[in-house]
Amino acid sequence: MEAFTAFAHQLADQAAALTRAGFRTSIAVENKSANHFDPVTKIDREVEADVRASIAAQYPDHHIWGEEFAGVTALAAQNMTWVIDPIDGTRAFISGMPTWGTLIGLYDGDQPVLGIADQPIVGDRFWADATGAFWRHSNTTNALSTRSCASLKDAVIAATSPALFESPAQKTSWQALSDRARLVRWGGDWYNYALLAAGHIDAVIECGLGAYDILPLRPIIEAAGGIVTNWQGQAVTAGGDIVAAGDARLHAEILAQL
Amino acid sequence: MEAFTAFAHQLADQAAALTRAGFRTSIAVENKSANHFDPVTKIDREVEADVRASIAAQYPDHHIWGEEFAGVTALAAQNMTWVIDPIDGTRAFISGMPTWGTLIGLYDGDQPVLGIADQPIVGDRFWADATGAFWRHSNTTNALSTRSCASLKDAVIAATSPALFESPAQKTSWQALSDRARLVRWGGDWYNYALLAAGHIDAVIECGLGAYDILPLRPIIEAAGGIVTNWQGQAVTAGGDIVAAGDARLHAEILAQL
């Protein structure tokens, strides 16, 4: 295992110790948005602070782009940048549902180096680096591979919430796509992308993601054989409107509809 | 532990052995509906057949109401009836998401005797009988208790999918309720009701459930201090349109809106 990957696993282990201790306890929930309910807990902040401190100690010249604290807010040429979502799915976390995850990515300029996504209650860890894409559960590690799915009519597609599609154009696009899909799955947050990489879901279509919601997952999706872009078909180097698919033919069909 | 409860745990253990072996494998998915995609797998059928055989051997005079095989289709006075959903959340199961569960209930006439809901990948088991409501995780068992939540404006509410609200009246009712809630959660299937019993979710509002989707959960909700009725406020003795709340004040507010 490469040095950065071993270090990222150590970060995920540290995060898991904190999230496991806080999950399903009576923790205070704050609202970090003035416009709607956007929950954050002290566990989100503790995990990100802990991961940031470890990165700063180990790689003091690396940049850090996280959800909860100020830092860089873009990938930049000739910089190594860690992208962190301490708890992706805070709404699931505060509702007792074990579908949240800790996401950690590393980029060299705008190119992915590694990504890791961890759900310590279920015991699911997904990661990827230059050596491939992997999934560990119950002490067994397997390579990840997306599945073949040529067309929307055969596809299991997913999105976390109807509320992600805010504009009329987004709602119309989603409706047209979901009407043609075989099965639509709601909820899931990061898990949908990991399950796409594992060959259980065919496409994830969402809007308005943060960079930390998707950049750590991009290497896992790509190394498993999938494709992830924005709705315009461009490479994902920040957040925004996202289309991920396990099969390039399905990705092309969805992009053509958008 | 009472004899029926010990037997129900044994049934859940048997089911778990089958579901664990089948989860995230390449299993064939059939469509059991002519109108839309309603998936079923051989694992659903194997689990229900196994549970039915054990009940028939142990309690040959008991009735069985299950999702996948013919049997009784109502609770009846002076009969003991087991109500079984071998995999609640088959859509989650076939998508690799560990939020499905095996549900087993027992009714004496129309009165609940016990309910059990099991998620073996996460290691979450919820159950209730005359001695109380309980949750086991990682070999630790705790009593379940709903939380206080007096009003919709403070409530975390959940529904598995927008597609459950089929009629214009149902859509309008849901929209009015969800607009006033603090947080809306999608996905989850049976898990939402169990997390309501555990004090993490305040209300679950859904339409068109099968009896096997809700009857095994009713004893768990009620023994934890919650209330579950249909949209007309009547006791749940079959499927239909369901309102569950952890706090009777919230339940009353929701019913008043419906």
Overall description:
2 copies of one chain form a homodimer. By secondary structure, chain A is α+β, with helices and mostly antiparallel strands. Helix content of chain A is 32%, strand content 30%. The first copy, chain A, is built from 8 helices and 14 strands. Chain A has helices at 3-22, 42-58, 90-94, 168-180, 191-197, 211-214, 218-223, 248-257, and strands spanning 29-31, 39-41, 63-66, 80-88, 101-108, 111-119, 124-129, 132-137, 140-143, 156-159, 183-186, 203-209, 227-230, 240-245. In chain A, the strands form 3 sheets. Chain A has a 7-stranded mixed beta sheet, sandwiched between helices. In chain A, helix 1 (3-22) packs antiparallel against helix 2 (42-58). Chain A is globular. Chain A starts with a helix and ends with a helix. The A-B interface holds A 24, 37, 39, 91-92, 94-99, 121-122, 124, 156, 158, 160-163, 182-188, 191, 195, 198, 200-201 and B 24, 37, 39, 91-92, 94-99, 121-122, 124, 156, 158, 160-163, 182-188, 191, 195, 198, 200-201.
SSE diagram, text form:
2 copies of one chain form a homodimer.
Chain A: H1 3-22, E1 29-31, E2 39-41, H2 42-58, E3 63-66, E4 80-88, H3 90-94, E5 101-108, E6 111-119, E7 124-129, E8 132-137, E9 140-143, E10 156-159, H4 168-180, E11 183-186, H5 191-197, E12 203-209, H6 211-214, H7 218-223, E13 227-230, E14 240-245, H8 248-257
Parallel strand pairs in A: 3-4, 10-11, 10-12
Antiparallel strand pairs in A: 1-2, 4-5, 5-6, 6-7, 7-8, 8-9, 12-14, 13-14
Helix pairs in contact in A: 1-2
